[in-house]
Specification:
The complex is a heterodimer of chains A (113) and B (113).
Chain A lengths: L4 E3 L2 E5 L4 E6 L6 E7 L5 E8 L4 E4 L2 E6 L4 E6 L8 E8 L9 E2 L3 E6 L1
Parallel strand pairs in A: 2-11
Antiparallel strand pairs in A: 1-3, 3-8, 4-5, 4-9, 6-7, 7-8, 9-10, 9-11
Chain B lengths: L3 E4 L2 E4 L5 E7 L5 E8 L3 E10 L2 E4 L6 E7 L2 E6 L8 E8 L8 E2 L3 E5 L1
Parallel strand pairs in B: 2-11
Antiparallel strand pairs in B: 1-3, 3-8, 4-5, 4-9, 5-6, 7-8, 9-10, 9-11
Classes of the chains: A mainly beta (113), B mainly beta (113).
Chain lengths: 113, 113
């Protein structure tokens, strides 16, 4: 089964609203990453948070990590139509120095203009 | 975009035929990965490579083989394609050690009839 599981599976909001996506995982991690995938394209890295970090910001993105609950959240503030995409969390368990990631199934975000 | 290309971008083939997908990078990254993406499963790792001629299995390696004879090329072969291998295949690269992001190619859509 997947290490990371996103919630909700789908989210539809109006432009200007905030979007929050959650990710839960099962084993201890070295870091957790969030990726975006536009329809028909490859994944693009958004942000990485290390296991010893609790919060990280990048522009309109805010990521939190709670290792005690094995969960992370991605907040996109003041959403835009261009944010419409699928968002994936990916965990690096650090079990080997290979950079291998385990991806969740993703949250599909639709931002209506 | 990171210098990653995949070929072909689309392929339709018949059950039982061999298929080879190519991933080419110009970033000189050590690590390369092959994933498949299917609805309801997210991205799953097929094989990865940690150097020339050094490869290892991922989560869903059955029915697939890989080769890496040069740093820049990572080939994925389906020895005898089956309909269950109909999917979108993504190649990714990274510098490989922890706290590194992965860069993804544009994907190959493979249909096995």
């Amino acid at each position: 089964s997947q290490q990371g599981e996103e919630d909700p599976q789908a989210l539809s909001i109006q432009e200007g609203e905030n979007a929050t996506m959650n990710c839960s995982y099962k084993t201890s991690i070295n870091n957790l990453q969030w990726y975006r995938q536009n329809s028909g394209r490859g994944l693009v890295h958004l942000i990485l948070i290390r296991s010893n970090e609790r919060e990280k910001h990048s522009g309109r993105l805010r990521v939190t990590l709670d290792t005690s609950k094995k969960s992370s959240s991605l907040l996109i503030t003041a959403s835009r139509a261009a944010d419409t995409a699928s968002y994936f969390c990916a965990t690096d368990t650090g079990s080997s120095n290979t950079g291998k990631l385990i991806f969740g199934q993703g949250t599909t975000l639709q931002v209506k203009p | 975009d990171a210098g990653i290309t995949q070929s072909p971008r689309h392929k339709v083939t018949e059950t039982g035929t061999p298929v080879t997908l190519r991933c080419h990078q110009t970033e000189n990254h050590r690590y390369m990965y092959w994933y498949r993406q299917d609805p309801g499963h997210g991205l799953r790792l097929i094989h990865y490579s940690y150097g020339v001629k050094d490869t290892d299995k991922g989560e869903v390696s059955d029915g697939y083989s890989v080769s890496r004879s040069k740093t820049e090329d990572f080939l994925l072969t389906l020895e005898s394609a089956t309909s269950s291998q109909t999917s979108v295949y993504f190649c990714a690269i990274s510098e490989g050690f922890s706290y590194n992001e992965q860069f993804f190619g544009p994907g190959t859509r493979l249909t096995v009839l």
